[in-house]
Every structure is written in C-alpha cells, then in structure tokens.
Amino acid sequence: MELPIKISQQSREPIYHQIENQIKALIASGQLQTGTSLPSIRALSKDLEVSVITTRRAYQNLEYQGFIQTLQGKGTFVADLNPSIKQEIKQDSVSRALSEAIETAYQHNYSKQQIKKLFLSLLDT
Amino acid sequence: MKPVIDVSNLYKTIDDFELGPFNLSIEPGLVTAIVGNNGAGKSTLLKMLMNLVKPNQGDIRLLERNISEDESWKQHVAYLPQRLLGYDPFNGHQLKEIISNLYPNWDESRFNKMVDMFNVNLSKKYGKMSQGMQQKLALALMLPRNPDIMILDEPTSHMDIPSKYLLMDILVEWMEEGHRTLILASHQTEEIRKLADTIAIIRDGDIIGHYEKDELSRYFTQYWLADSLPHKTLPGEVKRKGERIVITNQERELEAYLKRHQLKWSQKEHIDLNDAISLMLI
C-alpha cells in the first residue's frame, strides 16, 4: 500500500520527522485505521526516495510512541490509540500548518493585524 | 553493525591509470550505489571485491574474511559483471541447468517468476538475444542463487523502462527477505533515487565521498541574491550561475558572510540528488 506522504527536501524539518508526523496525522484523521498494515521500511523508502536508515528511524519513533506495532514476520500495523491522543495529534497538525502560514506572512512583512484580518476573511469565504 | 565488506588502503595501477588508495565500508542490510563518470574505476573496484583483479596493495575483507585467503565466501556472493563471458552458445534452459546445479540454495520458483515477468524466451541462444534481454536473463540467473550479498555492475543499462521498474520492485522484495546487501554500480538516476541508501562517488580513480543518500540530497544549497555576486569566492562556493545565483556546500558560513557584507538573498533551495552528484563529478 502506498501512503499519501509528501517529503520536502526544502523544509528545515528533518526527513524522518516529516515521515513520522505525516503518519501520525494519517492515523489521527482516521485515514489509517487501527490494524491497517503499513508498507515495509524498504518499500516506503523506495516510494519516498529516502534511505532505509531514515525510514527506520521514523518507524522506530512511531513504535516507541505507541502509534504502530511490528509483529515479527507479519509486518507493521497501526496500533490501537487512545482517542485523547488522536485529538492531541489533530490539534498539533493544524497548529503546525497555521504556524507555517504565519511564518510565511512574517517573511512578507505582514503585521499581526494584517495577518488576523486576512485569516478572518479567509475563514469566512 | 559490522561491515559486510571492508576495503582498506586499496590501490591498483593499470597502465597509467591509478585507482585509490581508498577505503570503503559497506553495511549489511543496505543498498549501496557506486556512481562515477565513465572510466572512473567502478568496474575495476567491483572486480577487485570479487578477487578477479588483484590490487597492488591493500586489503579487502568480505564477511570478516580476507578474500585472498580462501574462497569460501564466494557462495555468499553473487556478482553480475557488465559482460558475461561464455554464455553466448547456450540457450536459457541450458544456462539455467548449468547454474542451478552450482548453487544448493537455488530457488526455482523465483527463476520462473522472473523469466515470466520479463518475458524471456529460454529457447533462444544467449548470444542471439538483444542486450536488454540478455540483462533480464542474467538477473533471472542471479537472484535465485539466494546470496547474502549481490554485486550488480550496471544491471539495467539496456533494459526498457517498464522492466527497470519491475526490477526495482523485485530488488525491494529481495532486500526485504533477510539481512541482505546490495551493491549497485549504476548510471540510472531513477535506480539510485529509489533504491540506494548510501552512495559512494568515484571520480577519476578516487572515492571522493561515501554519503547517506538523504545527506547528499541536502548537501548543496543554491542561493538567489538580490544583487550581483561579489567577485571574491564565497564560503563553500562550488558554482555560480550568472550574476546572482551561487551554489554552496556551507550554508551557515555563506549566510554569515552575506549578512556581514549586507548582501541580501531572496531564496534558497537544496540541490536535488542528480544535480548534487553531477556537481561532485565535474
């Protein structure tokens, strides 16, 4: 199975972190349900064009944090997650996206007021 | 983890061409791509790994054994050279008979699967096949040996595009089956991007670097300056494009320099893997 993950080589965020966060977001949003089988480290590395060293690190972190589970000889699966953690992840991915937007606005010399105004007007459309 | 192949101070001269001295360590479970310009010495290095070419000096340890001491390591390694000698007069069936008998772990079903996928006509003589078809058959005779280490010298140079993709899937599957190691000399950028974990770069007989792929994807950064570049060479500068674009391998130093000299830049971007390799081979 291919995962809808997009890696940015331009982002300051390390690649293993990007993989980790995007898989978390897919789990939190319900796109990846408990028990869903994940691609092998080698297969995901090929799809994302990254080294297995990077993908392994992302999988290890996800496993350590309880998001995924590896069963010897069977593969890697989405673990059963507490709903409150899902909620937390959701909030986390939205605030990350908004923070990035704010950073872009600052780079273009927007003031706090201007950002607020633009945000509210976009929210109403 | 202990390296499966450990090359130290390897040096070889062939007429007036000098290879090395170099050191290279290959970790198990990884795909290592060996890239370089034509005639850089890639194939000679691979032949030395197989003890087919003797170095003037230096050591090669394979699975923790010195390759020149005994040949017991050979059953763990499958090597595919660019040109297979002696295959021409035999057809696919005959070649399979000969080779499968030499390898006790021969996996017949994998051979049949690959022949099927690649549409190889086994009744045809090897010498009468197109070069692409020869490569397909050669690979189908390689993977079923179930080696721990596979060394492939430009295995897909003549293959059509769909077959190259098929082979990548086959190799991914093969790597997943155990603690296997693949060494791939290749000019195929797609193969390098999708399969390699580390990349060793050889230029004119020297290994100029052995990098984790993801490190190489961020090795060079291109900056767009707001005004013309100064004449002086900038920190880490490897190339300029026109008046305002500079490529560096020292982001932090360059940015500090630009700041000190009040030079503004509008954008920066990491150079992608292919361009990074090209920059290193120039």
From TrEMBL, chain A:
SUPFAM superfamilies per UniProt: Winged helix' DNA-binding domain
Keyword presence, Transcription regulation: yes
Keyword Protease: no
Short name of any one Pfam family annotated for the protein: GntR
Gene3D superfamilies: Winged helix-like DNA-binding domain superfamily/Winged helix DNA-binding domain
GO molecular function: DNA binding; DNA-binding transcription factor activity
Domain HTH gntR-type, residue spans: 13-81
Keywords: DNA-binding, Transcription, Transcription regulation
Protein name as annotated: GntR family transcriptional regulator
Organism: Tenuibacillus multivorans
Automatic annotation (TrEMBL), chain B:
Name assigned to this protein: ABC-2 type transport system ATP-binding protein
Gene3D superfamilies in the cross-refs: P-loop containing nucleotide triphosphate hydrolases
Alphabetically ordered keywords of this record: ATP-binding, Nucleotide-binding, Transport
SMART domains in UniProt: AAA (SM00382)
PANTHER family reported in the protein's UniProt record: ABC TRANSPORTER ATP-BINDING COMPONENT, ABC TRANSPORTER ATP-BINDING PROTEIN ALBC-RELATED
Domain of life: Bacteria
Keyword Oxidoreductase applies: no
All copies of domain ABC transporter, residue ranges: 2-229
MF GO annotations: ATP binding; ATP hydrolysis activity
Keyword Nucleotide-binding attributed: yes
Protein source organism: Tenuibacillus multivorans
Pfam family, one: ABC_tran
CDD domains per record: ABC_DR_subfamily_A
